[in-house]
Amino acid sequence: MRLTGFKRKAGTGWRERGQGMQATMRTAVEFRGVGLHSGRPARMRISPASAHYGIWFKRTDLRGIDAMIPARWDAVADTRLSTLLANRDGASVGTVEHVMAALAGLGVDCALIEIDGPEIPILDGSSRAFTEALAAVGVIPLDGERRRIRILKPVEVRDGDRLARLEPASRFEIDVAIDFEAPAIGRQALRLALGPGDFRRELSGCRTFCLRDEIDAMRALGLARGGSLDNAVVVDGERVLNPDGLRRRDEFVRHKALDVVGDLALAGAPILGRYVGRRSGHEMTNRLLRALFATPDAWRSELAADEVLAA
After folding, report:
1. What local confidence, expressed as pLDDT, does residue 216 receive?
2. To the nearest 10°, the Cα dihedral for 34, 199, 145, 46?
3. Is 52 marked active-site?
4. Catalytic residue among 37, 98, 255, 282
C-alpha cells in the first residue's frame, strides 16, 4: 500500500529551543494511509497542544463512548507485533510506536493526534514521513518546564533468552541485539546515544520487517492485513524480497531501536538512562516500564537541563 500523501501547513522547519522547556509543533500535519494489521484506511491529524497537555489520541469515528486515549504505558492493551493503546471505555488505537518515536525523536511533548480509524497509517513502515513532516513545520517551545525520568538503579525483566533493562546513564542510550534464523537478518547489534537530531538521521527511515513464511499465520490471527512490500521489508531465507533492497545494512536492528524509542515514549517523559534489549520487543519494553514505575527508588522525576536542540 502506498502513502496517498500528507498535508502540512506552511512552516519554517526545525527551530532551536531550550531543552528545559516543553515543546509542540508550530502547526498541524495530516496523513492518510492504511493500517499495517487492520488493513483499514485512516486519516490522521497531529495538532499542537498547550503546555502540560501531554500526548493524547482521539478516535474521531467513535460515538457514545470516551474517544480519548492517553499515550501512556499503563494504557497499553496489546503488544502482538505492535503496540495498541486502549481506554476504559474500550476505544483503542493500534501501531502507535512509529508516530510516538517521531514525536519523541523531535522532542515534542504535547500534541493531540486525531484519527478516524483503529490504527495509525503504516505509510512506508518507518517513522520517516512523520518525522519529516513534523520537522518541516517546526517544533516550538511552550510556557512550561520539561521534566525527565532519571534512572537511578537497574530495572530488568527477562523471559527465557529475552531481556529488557533500564540502567543509569548520563544520556539516553540504546543497546539492542537481535538474532533471527533467517540468514538475511542473522545476528545484529546496535549501540547508539541519541542526542539532538540523531533519531532523524540514524533511525527514522528504518522499516518494519517480517519473514515470508510467517505471513499466512499472522493473517490467520487478523494481523498484517495491510502489509505489502511498500510498507515492510520481507525476508525469505537469504533473500530480501523488496526490489529496492535495504536502506541500511543493519536496517533490521535499527528498526528495533526505533520501536524502543516509540515504546519508551509512553513513559510520559524523556528517559535519562540506557535501554538494553536482547531479543526484546513491544511486550518486553512495556513490561519493563511497568516494572520501573513499580519500583519507586529506581527512578526520579527531575527538570530537564537547559540544553539547545537542533535537528
Report:
1. 86
2. -20
3. no
4. 282
